[in-house]
């Protein structure tokens, strides 16, 4: 497979769930730096697209797939999101986006709660970069650690 296709696969998968980037990137034999940068790039592409075009994308989905059934407004999950937002604001959502949420989920959540676009983008860059390198290193060395512990 050509190298550019491999890069695009890692980039595209990271746009939806950032942990997929390090997993596939390292499986392809990319360096930690290459993998982390591609993962961060994929994540941030989603953040930018949803920050700038989120309302238009939402209207398009509603036209294509029709209106949704009314859902319960207060569930355990939504209450937890509200707690994170009230305690930590945009930085908290950005911190949890790569590990618990996903780039689309975190961006939609921050936007829905009224976060400013510039704040969302700034904090997503900060925590996205940190988590991209941490997750890449964890994926790279996880099997070694698990073997040392006798799990594998």
Protein described:
- This is Small multi-drug export protein.
- It comes from Marinoscillum furvescens DSM 4134.
- Keywords: Membrane, Transmembrane, Transmembrane helix.
- This protein is mainly alpha-helical.
- The chain has one domain (3-148).
- Helices cover 78% and strands 0% of the residues.
- Helix 1 (3-16) packs antiparallel against helix 2, helix 3 (32-65) crosses helix 5 and helix 4 packs across helix 6.
- The mean pLDDT is 88.
Short description:
By secondary structure, this protein is mostly helical. The protein has helices at 3-16, 20-27, 32-65, 76-96, 103-112, 117-148.
Q: Largest sheet, described in full? A: none
Tally of strands: 0
Q: Determine the mean pLDDT.
A: 88
Helicity range of the residues?
A: over 70%
Question: How many structural domains does the protein architecture include?
Answer: 1
End-to-end separation in angstroms reads 30 Å
Shape: globular
Pick out the low-confidence regions: none
Q: Return Rg in Å.
A: 17 Å
Q: How many H/I helices?
A: 6
Content of β-strand: under 5%
Question: What structural class do the secondary elements suggest?
Answer: mainly alpha
Transmembrane segments: 7-30, 36-53, 123-142
Protein name: Small multi-drug export protein
Keywords: Membrane, Transmembrane, Transmembrane helix
Organism: Marinoscillum furvescens DSM 4134
Layout of secondary structure:
Layout: H1 3-16, H2 20-27, H3 32-65, H4 76-96, H5 103-112, H6 117-148
Helix pairs in contact: 1-2, 1-3, 2-3, 2-6, 3-5, 3-6, 4-5, 4-6
Spell out the key features of this protein.
152 residues; mainly alpha; 6 helices; globular
